[in-house]
Amino acid sequence: MSLQRMRCVFCLGLLLLAQPVARAADRDAAIDRGIEYLLARGRGDDGSFSKESGPGVTALCLSAVLRNRPSLRDEPRVKQSLDYLESFVQDDGGIYQPGGRFQNYETCLAINALSSANSDGRYKEILARAEAYVRGIQWDESEDVSKADPSYGGSGYGREVRQRPDLSNTSYLVSALKDLGRGPDDEAIQRALVFVSRCQNLDSQYNQTPFAGIVNDGGFYYTPAAGGASMAGKTDGGGLRSYGSMTYAGLMSMIHAGLTSDDPRVAAALQFIKDNYTLEQNPGMGDAGLYYYFHTFAKALNAAGLESIEDAEGQKRDWRSDLIEAVTTAQQSDGSWVNANNRWLEGDRNLVTAYSLLALHYAGSTIP
Question: pTM score, two decimals?
Fold first, then answer.
């Protein structure tokens, strides 16, 4: 090898070594700025974040701060926000806004947040009662829902409104149970797997719904219950279109339920992800729910233990680098993030900043 070629190889090696370092530095700087935005500008005087939206956004913001910077648990502003969240603990064990419609969603998010602050067991009793609550409102035999019912195993927004279960709420249930240390053998997680499998466009022994084989692309949609629905709409043939954010929510839930890449459901989901790999949009939804997509994208791929994804052109993509670049590039000058498309409240800077910080956490973590 010539001296000039050796120099080129050496310089290339240095460049490759520098890329992960630069990526980590960009990620850490973005996280610090995002956390400072939340604590200095996003919080209300009472410790709330986006109080008008109920305690869910506060819980998400706390999770975003504490997952990235656990040492801030007793920082006065964080402690005040934790106290604010605790004020929503109800007599039935749920953690939600009285009279609201989002009991499961808010309680699961509160479990995520309080689990992140529970290293000394200070929230042990609250978490135990919250766990019992979300288990109690899962659609199952205890509520006269048989396994044959397409609603079985799912979670909806809450008990009082009895809304149909959906994949988003069900994935939050699975995530909350995972944060509480529950594993694939947990009965509620296995019941959730029944529902999750029926949200997949895959004709298999696990999905006998009328929608299973119409689209059959391995992706996921919102719900097969109550006649079925997809936020991406229906096909002319009555199928429910798959879309990105629900596919990653489905993949994450299946992984936490103990499925591996050998399972046809996981293999089909990964094929959909390969065919639709992008961080420029939420596949099937454009810019709607883009930051929710970033969050579920990172959380699912990290849970699956994947370091790269082969895209539709056969190119191996370092999803962590791609995600970090997409998220850090979109950060605003004040340290926040926001979506110009306000669907699903993504015009709320606190909510979107929380999604972004959580995405960056999972992009730099090997812990699901």
Answer: 0.93
